[in-house]
Design a protein that fits this description.
176 residues, elongated, single chain, 43% helix, alpha+beta
Length: 176
């Protein structure tokens, strides 16, 4: 009697778990290409937003940042880099455009969904992002960038991500 009371519920639970795992694995397999394509499209849109070009070629990668050379009509016009840093709620990913004089052309926030709505997510506001245009050297909060009120950690994460890319460009030099 006791074996039936233990065995049948255990087998039923095992069958449910196996079926759920199989369904999740199948869903992952079916959707992984679509998710990768959407992520690639989002990256390409961010690249075009910060420095429009005919093509982008990956140049280097270091510490989670990726640097691409941007070309227009066969000539290099600058760099586009993807950097990331830990914000208040999670990792913030930033795409940064930099011209041949090593000056930031624009930034685009690729991901900040884990930041606090109404505070940390305000790093994606145009007024904050526009402050980065025209900066060369390095970004410093309180000097050449004003942090978002109430979101200093998130603002610092954006600064760090942009500085990651600026450092990679400085290492590559100004010559195409």
């Amino acid at each position: 009697m006791k074996i039936k009371q233990i065995l049948f519920p255990t087998l039923a639970l095992l069958i449910v778990c196996v079926a759920a795992s199989a369904a999740l694995a199948l869903t992952n397999e079916v959707t992984k290409d679509r998710i990768a394509a959407q992520q690639q499209q989002k990256t390409e849109q961010a690249m075009a937003a910060v420095l429009p070009a005919d093509r982008y070629e990956q140049v280097t990668q270091a510490d989670g940042a990726i640097l691409y050379a941007a070309y227009q009509n066969g000539a290099q016009i600058g760099w586009v880099g993807s950097g990331s840093a830990k914000g208040y709620g999670g990792v913030i990913e930033v795409m940064t455009g930099i011209d041949l004089q090593q000056t930031v052309t624009a930034i685009e926030i690729v991901s900040c969904a884990d930041e606090t709505p109404g505070l940390g997510q305000n790093v994606d506001a145009p007024a904050f992002k526009q402050q980065f245009s025209g900066i060369s050297g390095s970004v410093q909060l309180g000097e050449n960038i004003d942090a978002v009120t109430g979101a200093t950690i998130s603002s610092a994460a954006v600064r760090d991500a942009v500085n990651q890319v600026l450092t990679l460009v400085q290492q590559e030099g100004t010559q195409p």
